[in-house]
């Protein structure tokens, strides 16, 4: 296949890098379902097993099996969500850091994900990238989307691995170098979306359950949005994947408070910030693969 070919040989590939099981269903899951339906190969790499997560579904708070072995339950939940979304899944094998609370904050647990050396920890993700060879990678912004130490560390190792995977002098034991073409941050929780949903709910005589963020400096800021993927056809799939994480998602809770009809009318996209692109593109985009479908590919993106 020549360097002037206009389409990759074989399917496009998308890699989502997430901190915990359930993050793949709460961030970008409708986008995932859309691309899977279109024939894109999608993989989720989950950094930790969520071992220190709380049980957030009141119906399971006292469940004996959940209390006895939450990590095993969360692995089963992840497998169900992966089946719903139609994705490939890999565990990176780090240990959940937990969300520290208190003033002052306590030290993070010894050996947990967030205290790992970034360059060393990124090696596991480099292997995934070289094996799977994604064209597009997604992760969280430098604040982790919200300030959980595992989310921040997930950002750090993804950025490190994105460049390290392309460097043949690094991690040679993990196979031939691979340069992914684009990297995005998830940005779907932002002020513009909340405001639009609130407007539609008022128009329909409904009371919003969650106020929209109002400050541009808020982690949910819309000031960095570049890419809007229309995926409202797959909101039901997203919700089914969310419900698969039964220990983490209350089916009567805020994740499902806004009717799907309101979501479709108010904000039918999931949104991203394009951070790195090795191919030409124009902002705003409506596709994570803009520049990979329509322009000649550079040799390092040829399969």
Short description:
The protein has one domain: Rossmann fold, CATH 3.40.50. The chain has 303 residues and is α/β, with parallel strands linked by helices. It is built from nine helices and seven strands.
Structure, described:
The protein is α/β, with parallel strands linked by helices and 303 residues long. It has a single domain, classed as LmbE-like (Rossmann fold, 3-Layer(aba) Sandwich). It contains nine helices and seven strands; from the N terminus they run βααβααβαβαβαβααβ. The chain has a seven-stranded mixed β-sheet with strand order 3-2-1-4-5-7-6, with helices on both faces. It is globular, with a radius of gyration of 19 Å. One of its GO terms (molecular function) is hydrolase activity, acting on carbon-nitrogen (but not peptide) bonds, in linear amides.
CATH class identity: Alpha Beta
The coarse overall form would be globular
Number of helices: 9
Mean pLDDT: 90
Mind summarizing the main beta sheet? 7 strands, mixed
CATH homologous superfamily placement: LmbE-like
Question: Which structural category fits the helices and strands?
Answer: alpha/beta
Compute the CA-based radius of gyration.
19 Å
Helical residue percent band: 25-40%
Write the element-wise H/E pattern from the N-terminal end onward. Answer: EHHEHHEHEHEHEHHE
CATH architecture: 3-Layer(aba) Sandwich
């Amino acid at each position: 296949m020549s360097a002037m070919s206009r389409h990759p040989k074989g399917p496009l590939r998308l890699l989502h890098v997430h901190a915990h099981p359930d993050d793949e269903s709460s961030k970008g899951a409708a986008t995932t379902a859309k691309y899977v339906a279109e024939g894109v190969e999608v993989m989720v790499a989950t950094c930790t097993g969520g071992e220190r997560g709380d049980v957030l579904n009141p119906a399971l708070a006292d469940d004996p099996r959940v209390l006895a072995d939450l990590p095993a339950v969360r692995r089963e939940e992840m497998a169900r969500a992966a089946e719903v979304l139609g994705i490939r899944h890999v565990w990176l094998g780090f240990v959940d850091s937990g969300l520290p609370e208190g003033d002052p904050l306590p030290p993070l647990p010894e050996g947990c994900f967030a205290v790992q050396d970034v360059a060393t920890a990124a090696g596991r993700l480099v292997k995934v990238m070289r094996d799977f060879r994604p064209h597009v990678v997604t992760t969280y912004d430098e604040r982790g989307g919200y300030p959980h130490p595992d989310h921040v560390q997930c950002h750090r190792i993804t950025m490190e691995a994105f460049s390290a995977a392309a460097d043949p002098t690094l991690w040679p034991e993990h196979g031939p170098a691979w340069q992914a073409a684009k990297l995005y941050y998830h940005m779907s929780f932002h002020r513009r979306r909340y405001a639009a949903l609130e407007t539609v709910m008022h128009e329909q005589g409904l009371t919003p359950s969650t106020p929209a963020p109002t400050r541009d400096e808020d982690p949910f800021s819309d000031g960095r949005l570049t890419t809007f993927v229309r995926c409202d056809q797959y909101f039901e799939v997203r919700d089914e994947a969310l419900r698969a994480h039964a220990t983490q998602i209350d089916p009567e809770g805020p994740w499902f408070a806004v009717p799907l009809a309101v979501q479709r009318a108010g904000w039918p996209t999931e949104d991203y910030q394009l951070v790195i692109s090795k191919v030409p593109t124009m902002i705003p985009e409506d596709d994570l693969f803009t520049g990979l479908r329509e322009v000649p590919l550079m040799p390092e993106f040829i399969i």
